[in-house]
Amino acid sequence: VITYRTDLAGITPSMLDGFFVGWPNPPSPETHLRLLAGSYAVVLATDDDTGQVVGFINAISDGVLAAFIPLLEVLPTYQGRGIGSELVSRLSDLLADFYGIDLLCDDDVVPFYDRLGFQRASAGMYVRNYQHQSGRP
Ligand SMILES: CC(C)(COP(=O)(O)OP(=O)(O)OC[C@H]1O[C@@H](n2cnc3c(N)ncnc32)[C@H](O)[C@@H]1OP(=O)(O)O)[C@@H](O)C(=O)NCCC(=O)NCCS
């Protein structure tokens, strides 16, 4: 059974193992917990059988007009069961009174967000400092 939660009470770094698949220099579980704690809103999916976090999404925000979704990930063995959609849907509900909710994604994930009510932007711009991929100290 998958449980969804919007707080970090009782979440430890060891419950966050396995994320950032394919990242050459990923944040550690400790840093992962730190970035969740620094977020405006989070939704976590946990597996009741193992106690592990199996999916998460976070938002950062100015608290007035705009929210941005930097990260969404479901552990590979849990993908394709609707967990990612549920995370987006629950976070969208939390952010429903903001003017804008933005995110960047690869082309292959566009149909996933399209189904969840997001519109495709004509352009997005970004900077990546890859030497800081594992996070600020
Ligand atoms: C994107 C992601 C969060 C979806 O999580 P999930 O729990 O598998 O999502 P759901 O089960 O709700 O929906 C799966 C649907 O999304 C589609 N989908 C998800 N990622 C996809 C991808 N990279 N390419 C093509 N389709 C994708 C699946 O085909 C599936 O469609 P279907 O229901 O028609 O078969 C998950 O694939 C993931 O963690 N990917 C790696 C990280 C990532 O890309 N995050 C998004 C960053 S913007």
Low-confidence blocks of residues: none
Q: Tell me the number of helical segments per DSSP (H or I, 4 or more residues long).
A: 3
Largest sheet: 5 strands, mixed
Query: Roughly how many Å is the radius of gyration?
Result: 15 Å
Fraction of helical residues: 10-25%
The assigned structural class equals alpha+beta
Bound molecules: coenzyme A
Quaternary status:
single chain
Order of strands, widest sheet: 1-2-3-4-5
Mean pLDDT: 98
Q: State the distance separating the first and last CA atoms.
A: 35 Å
Principal-axis shape equals: globular
β-strand number: 5
Strand content: 15-25%
Topology as a string of helices (H) and strands (E): EHEEEHEH
Question: How would you characterize this protein structure?
Answer:
The protein has 137 residues and is of the alpha+beta class. The chain contains three helices and five strands, in the order βαβββαβα. It has helices at 29-37, 83-94, 110-115, and strands spanning 2-5, 41-47, 53-61, 66-74, 100-102. Strands 1-2-3-4-5 form a five-stranded mixed beta sheet, with helices on one face. The radius of gyration is 15 Å and the shape is globular. It starts with a strand and ends in a 22-residue tail after the last helix. The chain binds coenzyme A.
Topology (elements, then pairings):
Blueprint: E1 2-5, H1 29-37, E2 41-47, E3 53-61, E4 66-74, H2 83-94, E5 100-102, H3 110-115
Parallel strand pairs: 4-5
Antiparallel strand pairs: 1-2, 2-3, 3-4
Bound molecules: coenzyme A.
Residues 72-74, 79-85, 103, 105, 108-109, 112 line the site of coenzyme A (COA).
